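re: the backbone from monday

yeah here it is again, tokenized this time
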């Protein structure tokens, strides 16, 4: 038997090996367009999952969408019409840049400091430290 046949045989015997167990999922935006503004209703869930404040996420979305953002009891109000796909893409990009560790790919990070236009992010899982440009 060659290597690939042996590998296929091993995967059939231990079917649980091929399944990657990932508990973390980036939340899908629950948004509603009202007139000329968009309301992100589940900002609290997104902020809790990211372990960041609503204000930080709002600041990022303000820059990315080039629209004013405010937070109230309804959720995060965006001063422009934004379709759900575009909003989900921006949230996914935020998680990739500022939440998920670049070394171990886990979401167990926190912001340690902001200095000279850069944010220092520290991973609690693997201890990695890296800087990214501030939003």
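seq for it, each position gets an aa:
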């Amino acid at each position: 038997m060659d290597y690939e046949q042996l590998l296929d045989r091993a995967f059939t015997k231990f079917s649980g090996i091929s399944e990657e167990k990932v508990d973390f999922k980036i939340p899908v935006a629950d948004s509603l367009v009202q007139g000329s503004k968009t309301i992100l209703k589940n900002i609290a869930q997104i902020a809790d999952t990211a372990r960041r404040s609503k204000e930080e996420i709002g600041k990022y979305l303000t820059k990315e969408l080039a629209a004013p953002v405010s937070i109230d009891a309804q959720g995060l109000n965006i001063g422009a019409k934004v379709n759900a796909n575009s909003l989900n893409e921006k949230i996914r990009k935020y998680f990739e840049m500022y939440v998920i560790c670049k070394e171990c790919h886990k979401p167990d990070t926190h912001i340690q400091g902001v200095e000279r236009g850069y944010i220092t992010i520290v991973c609690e899982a693997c201890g990695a430290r890296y800087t990214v440009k501030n939003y």
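Residues 48 and 54 are 9 Å apart (CA to CA). The chain has a mean pLDDT of 90.
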